[in-house]
Amino acid sequence: DVKVTQSSRYLVKRTGEKVFLECVQDMDHENMFWYRQDPGLGLRLIYFSYDVKMKEKGDIPEGYSVSREKKERFSLILESASTNQTSMYLCASSHRGGTNEKLFFGSGTQLSVL
Amino acid sequence: GQQLNQSPQSMFIQEGEDVSMNCTSSSIFNTWLWYKQDPGEGPVLLIALYKAGELTSNGRLTAQFGITRKDSFLNISASIPSDVGIYFCAGQVGFGNEKLTFGTGTRLTIIP
Lengths: 114, 112
Known about the structure:
With 114 residues, chain A is mostly beta strands. The model of chain A has no long low-confidence stretch (mean pLDDT 92). Chain B has no helices and eleven strands. The model of chain B has no long low-confidence stretch (mean pLDDT 92).
């Protein structure tokens, strides 16, 4: 069974801390994405990557960075966490090519910044 | 970035009822997708639509790609308890690697 695994289900951090959210996929997918999910706002794209060492800004990249050193792993970094970054973070991956942009999602990391 | 507006934001229905929800955009999309998120999980793709006017079913679910290409609709017939969750539409302007734009979500609750 194909899988996207997010390292933590719940995280509690303090304002100003550096936070790492890790995501690993076992499907050999080229594309990986980070979204945040907030009630009433749906899913908003933070960053994405189409290949190792590649990264592109999504719709709300401010306050975040990413790292893709290996094909299967995509990390989201909050350089200095703030309370407005309290949210559910979802990682996703997909196979490049074709017209079928099917995303496979992880179960999410609920981050609380105090 | 642009967002898709979903309606209604939440629904409370009784088991056995039919459900309708829709998604609208101010701009044209060439692909429409519908996802469902079960409580505590990530979204899972339900239906993909690629052509204006297309009507596609997946069991009790039926989705339509609006003819203006600015909207899409999802219907669920004879709802059951496992239909509970959040339903998201998503649109794609281009094809292939083009990123998706997600809707604001419709939360479905079934009243016992």
